[in-house]
Design goal:
The protein is mostly beta strands and about 120 residues long. It has strands at about 25, 30, 35-40, 50-60, 65, 70, 85-90, 95-100. The chain has one domain (about 25-105). The strands form 3 sheets. The chain has a 3-stranded antiparallel beta sheet, with no helix packed on it. Strands 6-7-8 form a 3-stranded antiparallel beta sheet, with no helix packed on it. The protein has a two-stranded antiparallel ribbon with strand order 3-4. A hairpin with a 2-residue loop joins β1 and β2 (about 30).
Length: about 120
């Protein structure tokens, strides 16, 4: 008597599931993110607070975390579906700044544009 081995339940092989979107609650947008992700400082020499990827303002250890808005700006260098997207938030140390979209698991299209 021989055993037969087969592959069972491989529907949708090769397809990736879409990330769940960020959600709005309590005056902020909440997203699932990488714990310990860097929150980058912003350039204070411009009229708008654009990201300064050379300086880390703090880190975000909470998950999920809240965010306020998004911009398409300087390359994050992190790839992902939105390689030029930065998300405005407040780091765990109280410093305001930008998190790279690639450090956020949730789909961030639902966040409003900052300007």
């Amino acid at each position: 008597m021989g055993a037969t081995m087969g592959v069972v339940g491989l529907s949708g092989a090769g397809t990736a599931a879409a990330a769940a979107p960020c959600w709005y609650s309590g005056g902020h947008w909440w997203c699932n993110n990488v714990s310990g992700a860097a929150v980058y400082d912003y350039n204070r020499d411009t009229a708008r607070a654009y990201p300064d990827p050379a300086h880390i303002a703090g880190r975000m250890y909470s998950n999920p975390s809240w965010f306020d808005c998004r911009i398409e700006n300087v390359s994050t260098g992190g790839g992902g579906p939105h390689p030029n997207r930065w998300i405005w938030t407040k780091a765990d140390n109280g410093a305001w700044g930008w998190m790279k979209d690639s450090a956020i698991y949730s789909e961030t299209n639902s966040l409003p544009a900052c300007w």
